[in-house]
Every structure is written in C-alpha cells, then in structure tokens.
Amino acid sequence: MGVKQIHRPPQNAWERLYVFEIARGLGITLKHALLSWFKPGHMPTYEYPEVKRPLAERFRGRHRIRKREDGSPLCVACYCCQTVCPPQCIDITAEESDDPAVMKRPREFKINLLRCIFCGMCVEACPRDAIYMSHDYELADRTREQLQLGLDDLLENQDNDEGEG
Amino acid sequence: MKAPFPRSIECEQKLDLCAERMILNWGPAHPATHGTLRVILTLEGETIAKCDTEIGYLHRGLEKLAEDWTYNQCVNISDRINYCSVFINNVGWHQACEKLFGIRVPPRATYLRTILSEIARIADHMVCLGPNCVDIGVLTPFWYTWNLRELAYDLLEFVTGARMTTAFTRVGGLAADAPAGFEERVKQEFLPEVYRVMDELDSLLSKNRIFNDRTRGVGALSQEEAVSYGWTGPCLRACGVAYDVRVANPYLAYGDMDFDVPVGEHGDTYDRFFVRVEECRQSARIIEQAFSKLPDGPVNADDKRVVLPAKGDVYGHIEGLIHHFEIVMFGPRAPVGAICYDSVEGANGELGFTIVSNGTNKPYRMHVRSPCFHVFSALPRLVTGRLLADLPAVVASLNIIAGELDL
Questions:
Q1: What Rg do the C-alpha atoms of chain B give, in angstroms?
Q2: Would B247 be classed as within a structural domain?
Q3: Whose C-alpha in A144, B34, B145, B286 is 20 to 30 A from the C-alpha of B195?
Q4: Whole domain around residue B88: which residue ranges?
Q5: Does residue B68 lie within any of the structural domains?
C-alpha cells in the first residue's frame, strides 16, 4: 500500500500549440466512430422500443403471484410481505379457504405500484415462494388507479416471464 | 500560465464593467448543478463577487424515516443517500449495524462486498468525470465514461437485481450469493474496459490545452484549509493529503489488498479529475486481487438471531419457519443503549453512520456523516473572485450529489 503522486508536467511548446493534441484526440474519437459503424456488437446503444435490453435474471420488475395447479394463488395470506414492505405498499385481506388442505387464502391482495420501491424484500420474506418479481418494467399508465394492482393483475401473464425463483 | 482574459475583480474594475452588481440564481433546477441545489451569485461583470449556497431542495427526512424502519429495511434509505454509488452506502449502513450487533461477517461476504463496492466506486467516478468534461465543454469523453458506467451498472444488476437502488446487504451478510459467471463477466467484459477508458481519458484530456486552461489552478484549496473544512475522499487527496479510510482503518478485505492511494499536489480541478482517474485504476486492481483470493463458503453469518434461515429450512422445517417469521415480523433486535459509529470510504469521501439503539428492532436515532456536505461547504471559498464559467467546472469536480447533501 503506497501513495501515488499525480504528476503534472508543464505543457511544452508542442502541446501549447493546441492543434496537434486536438488532432490526436480526434484520432481517438474517429477510431470509436469507425468501430461503432463497422464492428458488429460494438455499438453500445439499443434501438428501444424495437430492441430491448437483455435483463439480468435477478432483475426486479413488477410483482406476480404464483398459482397452484388448479389456478388459485399459492399465497397463504401470512402477511409477511405486508409487514416487511418498507413503503407499506402491500395490502392483504385474508379469508378462509374452501380447500381443506389450505387454511387461509387472500381475498384481496393489493400492491400500490406508485409507492413500491422495488427493493425485493417481499420476495425474500415469502415463506411459500408465492410472490416473485417479474422482468416487466414498462409500468407507465394513464391513471393512478390503473397502477393499483389487484389479485387478478398479479396472477395474469405468468407464462411470458421468468422471474426470480 | 497567464490567462488571456481579465480574471480578478481589480482587472474588471479598471475596465469599469462592475458599475452594477447582478444577482444570478444558479439552480435549483439547472443541469450543471447535478441535482437540486441553489447557488445565489452576486456578479460583477463576469466575476463572482459573492457566492451564497442554499441546500434543502432534496430533503426527504431520511434520518427521521430510519427511526421507523427496521435495521434491514433501512438499507433502502442508504440506497438514496449517494445514488451514484449505492452499494458502498449499503455496506456502510450494515457495517455500522454489524458493529452494533457484534456480528462478524463471513469472509466470502466481505470479499463480495469489497468487489461490488469497487465496481460502484468506478461507476460513481464515471458519473463525476463524464459530466465534469461536459461542464467544461468537452462532450466526447462523456460517452466513453458513460459506456463504462453502463457496464458497471449491468454488473450490479447481474448480482443485485437493480441498477441503482441495489438494497443488497443485510445485517450479517448479503441478500444472496453472487450468481455463477460473475467472475468471468467482470474479468472479461469490465476490467479491460476500465483500463482502456482510463487511458483514453488520459490521452484525450491531460495534454489538451483547452482542458488544461480550464482546470489548472481553478478551484484550488490548500491542504490545511481542506482539512479544516472537513474534506475527505478524492477531493482531499487531490490537495495532497493521503487519507483514505480503506488504508487508515482497513475494513472489509482492504487490509489484504495491495493498492496505491493517489494524491495530487495543487488541489485544483485538474488534480481532482486525475486523482479520480487513477482511483478507478486502483479499484480495478483491488477487484482483480479480491477475485484471486475470493474464498468459498456462506455469505451470511451463522447467527439465528439476525440472519434469515435458508429457504429449504423455511419450507421443510417448523423451526426454520419460526425463525423466518420471527425475523421477518420483528427484525433483528439491537443491544440496549448502544451508540456506534462506523465509516466506509464512499466515492466522495468518508461516509459514516451513527446509530443509537434503545433495544428495539429499529434505530432510536440514525445520523449520516455525508462527505458531500463538507465538500460543498467550501464552494464559496473556491469560486469567489473567479469567473462565472469556472463555477460549473468546480462544482462538477467536487462531485456534489444532492442526495448526499440533504438526506
């Protein structure tokens, strides 16, 4: 572990002439431009929305709730996610289940996406692995009400994404 | 070097440009402020005669909010302090928590924290250097630094699941282990780019005459003054003081790493710029070494009071389920009446967290020692008497992050 001094040599006459250093800088810029045009895969931008950025597997997008085989939600309304949610955006109402093997199920499961901070703590807290975060990140909508997710919103479109398991 | 235009108030007085003083509000919503801060300038011609600063436009009451959240939930507060290098804040917060709880983090978690902190530091320096060039009038390096920042954020997303608000540390370790292929991605995609971009920045700017004229001697501060203002981090090191929390108080795995602390000598914008460039190279060195020493093992401490049990235990055993509910519902409890302070080397300097505990699952009081606040306090001293055009260059080189100023 040492100390590294940042040196600052005085500018010589060649460098003070300005033109040559600028030309050298332009050379670097030109190299980048040529690489972007001719080398495939070098272009760092995406033509969004036609082309979308590949997301990491752990990406935290909009929530979903997994289903049982009969299509009912896997959630057992234990209130863990509601308790741990830092901005308190989850609101669950529980009811008794018809299925004798399941004690409770959510009658309502509301997530207020306007408050959600996408921290993923609800996923970590779920003891049934029921809630997960999908790769759905285009969340703009026209009204505030459309961003209050209900149980039906959370159960739909499950086949399209591979969320964090 | 002699400036080709009048620089001092005396010069302009001779030219009779300052017959009338003008008040100029710079900010709170000006692109060159890099956030929301307001600088009230009194101009005489183009010279800054007086500079008043006003902060508070991004005040969110984070310290008060921490009193309402458990120690694990508070990591989301640290996400929003310096939003350019979030992972370092996560580590800072939970390191202070672990000191409070008296927990030792397993070696794999400390090494992963070190690696991710250094990636976040490189991303933060890129966010500083690129816009610093733009504020001076050089647009090109901005694209190159932004590409590198993009790679750094991709890596953070790969590991943590989010580009900026990572929220990845927990009391006693990390939320998850790094996914397979992390080391290869960093070594193949990221580290060669870091060295390449730093060399390009060097060759594009260090000898460019316009850049030199705009940065040499601009916003210079002496060692003594920098220390008296409470400066830390790259800004202090640019003044010539080799103080780095990573060296002075080796936390995480920094004690095992071999790296240099870059220092400048003049403490001006030029030094601050190239100290950051050199720091990125050193960060890359640290990442390389940390990967070569990365141990296997768990990423969470073996302490059932604070760490969530493995998912297999939660699904399969009643004991695991009970522990899971206990920690999720109530959160880890701190010892009664403990006060602790711990700091990490943030991208802007010493980032410290003070926690006062009253024995519950939430902090009784949390205080953040944010580096930007101290750095920003010296701004009037740096720009008074200089030209208006120097102000953006100085503010950008100080790397003022409004989220860190206000909390």
A1: 23
A2: yes
A3: B34
A4: 62-404
A5: yes
Number of structural domains found in chain B: 1
Closest CA to B407 of B93, B159, B18: B93
B264 phi-psi bin (left φ>0, alpha ψ -120 to 50, beta other): beta
Within a domain: B111 = yes
The dotted CATH code for A63-160 is: 3.30.70.3270
Query: Parallel, antiparallel, or unpaired: how do β-strands A104-112 and B350-358 relate?
Result: unpaired
Q: Which of residues 342-401 of B touch A (CB under 8 A)?
A: none
Question: Distance (Å, rounded) from C-alpha B44 to C-alpha B252?
Answer: 50
* Average pLDDT, 10 consecutive residues per value, chain A (165 residues): 82 82 88 86 84 88 87 87 91 88 88 91 89 88 89 75 45
CATH of the domain at B81: 1.10.645.10
Query: Residue A101: is it exposed, middle or buried by C-beta count within 10 angstroms (0-12/13-18/19+)?
Result: exposed
- What's the ipTM? 0.87
Nearest to residue B197, comparing CAs of B116, B119, B259, B122? B122
- Say how far apart CA B159 and CA B44 lie, in whole Å: 52
Which of B76, B139, B207, B247 to mutate: most A Cβ within 10 Å? Answer: B207
**What is the model's pTM?**
0.89
What residue type is assigned to position B159 of the chain? V
CA A117 to each of CA A92, A163, B76, B155, B169: distance values in angstroms, whole numbers, following the listed order: 18, 17, 8, 20, 16
d(CA B183, CA B288): 9
Q: Look up tokens 């940042």; give the residue.
A: A6
- pLDDT at residue B281, rounded to an integer: 92
Please name the helix (run of DSSP H) or strand (run of DSSP E) that holds residue B91, with its range, or none: helix B86-101
| Token code pair at residue B197 | 């971009």
Closest among A33, A44, A151 to A93, alpha carbons compared: A151
Q: Hey, what amino acid is at B249?
A: N
| A18 Rama class: left (phi>0) / alpha (psi -120 to 50) / beta | left
Opening angle at CA B397, ends A27 and B124, nearest 5 = 80
**Two tokens, residue B157:** 């997303």
Report in angstroms the alpha-carbon separations of A46 from A162, B89, B155: 22, 30, 18
pLDDT in tens, B76-95: 999 989 888 899 999 999 99
B contact residues 238-277, partner A, Cβ 8 Å cutoff: 238, 242, 247, 257-266, 270-271, 274-275
Residue in chain B closest to A134 (alpha carbons) equals B161
Domain coordinates in residue numbering, chain A: 63-160
| Cβ-Cβ contacts under 8 Å for B49 (sequence gap 6 or more) | B9, B18, B21, B42, B43, B384, B385
Residue B377 within a domain: yes
Distance in angstroms (rounded) separating the CA atoms of residues B330 and A83? 9
pLDDT tens-digit series, residues B189-247: 899 989 999 998 888 888 888 888 888 888 888 999 999 999 999 999 999 898 999 99
| Residue ranges of chain B whose pLDDT lies below 50 | 1-4, 6
| Token pair listed for A148 | 């209050």
Residues of B (285-304) whose Cβ lies below 8 Å from A: none
How far apart are alpha carbons B186 and B173 in whole angstroms?
Answer: 21
